[in-house]
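Dock S-adenosyl-L-homocysteine; give full complex structure.
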Amino acid sequence: MSSLNFDVITLFPKAFELVENLGVITRALEKSLIKVNLHNLREFGEGPYRQVDDKPYGGGVGMVLKPEPIYKAYESIRKSPKSKTLLMTPQGKVLKQKDLVRWSTLDQIIIICGQYEGFDERIRSLADEEISIGDYVLSGGEIPAISIINGLTRLLPGTLGDPESLIDESHNSSLLEYPHYTRPQIFRGMKVPDVLVSGNHENIKLWRRQKSIERTLERRNDLFTEKKEIFQKKDTE
Ligand code: SAH
């Protein structure tokens, strides 16, 4: 079985220890379904202090990652035939489950993590896609990169115990998932809905579908609007 290689360019490789300690991902690493290669940006820095950042032209606060060390780190990575390069930036396209699904058939994903005030604009030309993990600003691209590695790995065949659990999941069909319950049947006065213990699989299926729709309407009406737009576009095509 082929494995998915992540090549990450980062100033903080230690942050990625977290990847190995997140449940099912540990299993994927043990089974060699994924490999995480860390490229420490510092090693590609310039001069005796291995400088990787500098002041912005035109003035202003903060430091900016220089282009040369990132280009050098990037060029040191051997590219696979099915490879994509992702640049972590709050200015990128907001990550969606469908992106993870789309990338899950690749054999290499190169991730560039920014830091400080960001990176020199010329670094953008290395990227196939610029990705944001949401409309907020973190101090570096490491947590976004870990999110992508984690979300992608659980989609790979052989990672999850039961691949069925991927089917109904939230965001897979523009719907949020139905509520889950486990034992006990009554917990501090809160009861599991009768239908779930009825043994009637048809009714359970209907109930789950209904809850899924209700939940999405209540919490994320925007997902419905998105879906409607897709249908409308198809109609006019
Ligand atoms: N001044 C920049 C933000 C710098 S944050 C701007 O306004 O665009 C420093 C680095 O953290 C970024 O270069 C990026 O790699 C990472 N980062 C911060 N927030 C992020 C987000 N929401 N998604 C992806 N990467 C993010």
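Observed: The pocket of S-adenosyl-L-homocysteine is lined by residues 88-91, 113-115, 117-119, 132-134, 136-138, 140-141, 144 (CB under 6 Å).
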